[in-house]
Amino acid sequence: MPSPDSTYALILAGGSGTRFWPLSRNARPKQLLNLFGEDTLLEQTIRRLDGLVPPQNILILTNAQQEAAVREVASMLPAGNIFAEPAKRDTAPAVALGIGLIAARNPDALMMVLPADQLIADTAGFQGVMKDALATAEMSDGLVTIGIKPTWPCPSYGYIERGSRASIPGLVCEQLPAEVKRFREKPSTDLAEQFLAAGGFCWNAGMFVWSLPNVIRELSTHQPQLASFISEIRRSKDVAATVAAQFPKLTPISIDYGLMENAGRVLNIEATFDWDDVGSWLSVAKYLPVAGDNNRVNRPISEIDSENNIVFNDRKGCHVALLGVDDLIIVQTEDALLIANRHQADAIKKLSDLLPPGLL
């Protein structure tokens, strides 16, 4: 097992709040909400690393709009470990920034990249898989991905096609890695059904583990602009000024397109822990209490002849009553009310183009 002192975690905590409007806003998106108990998803992500990564080795990337809220939630980390990107440049530049910041501290480090907005209850299972991924990254020349065993033909996720068992001399771990054949972007439902029938496919969880020498070598080959940016950060005597000047110049591209789909060797470990990316109100509803005929609610409601509704009431002193309505999403906040057809949950983000600026 790699030394904790040489292990780092980069948590990506940016993103918009459009899918969970009106509860989420640009300054307080999903990972900063108390949707599942008292802790936010960001807090859960940080605490999931207890005993695996020292607090001083956990870095968070966010944006200027969310920085204050992130600092409040992540107060258990050193203040200097939280960085706000000066511009929106997608995940590859964000990850490159994290690599540069970590490389300036330890150029031989092992590094995890973790989204801040996923729901994982099995901390022990998560840590077991990540220990295997760290060991794999330390003992191989590959970049490691974490995959989720698909439970249904979801067309909203990227897929990873797994190949043969990886040969890594001396590696001992619970979940042995497989070579990755290729990445498959979000498929049609029919194609996703073919993936599940064929076997050997997993969902791309957006979690990556690698050694800095390996990932920098791959970036030098496939994304030389990002590799050069990392070098500038490592040499800089004023990192904040360097990032402010250079980051906005980087070409926006995702880490999947920019690196993982082109890297010389990518390995995959399939997760054994529970996982939910909580992508819409439908996902949240699975964790809410039931009222009446399969209505999912966060607070008591009154209802007659109403079924399959989702009610999330965040307005104090406001009671919701339903009469003869089905398949609705109703979200009440202090300043806004959403009423939507539950079958159009994924389209809620489109409302952001129509809303007054003060409600975004």
Q: Could you provide a short overview of the structure?
A:
With about 350 residues, the chain is of the alpha/beta class.
Topology:
Blueprint (H helix, E strand, L loop, with lengths): L6 E6 L28 H7 L10 E6 L3 H7 L8 E4 L5 H15 L4 E6 L7 H17 L3 E6 L10 E7 L12 E7 L4 H10 L2 E11 H11 L1 H12 L3 H8 L8 H6 L5 E5 L10 H5 L4 E2 L3 E3 L4 E3 L5 E4 L7 E3 L4 E5 L4 E5 L19
Parallel strand pairs: 1-2, 1-4, 2-3, 5-9, 11-13, 12-14, 13-15
Antiparallel strand pairs: 4-8, 5-8, 6-7, 6-8, 7-9, 10-11, 15-16
Helix pairs in contact: 3-7, 6-7, 7-8
Distance between the termini: 45 Å
Biggest β-sheet strands, sense, barrel: 5 strands, mixed, barrel
> What structural class do you assign from the helix and strand content?
alpha/beta
Determine the fraction of residues in helical runs and give it as a percent range: 25-40%
Give structural notes.
Helix content is 27%, strand content 23%. It has 360 residues and is an alpha/beta fold. It has a 5-stranded mixed barrel with strand order 5-8-6-7-9. A 5-stranded mixed sheet has the order 10-11-13-15-16. The chain has a two-stranded parallel ribbon with strand order 12-14. α6 packs across α7 and α7 (224-235) runs antiparallel to α8. The mean pLDDT is 95.
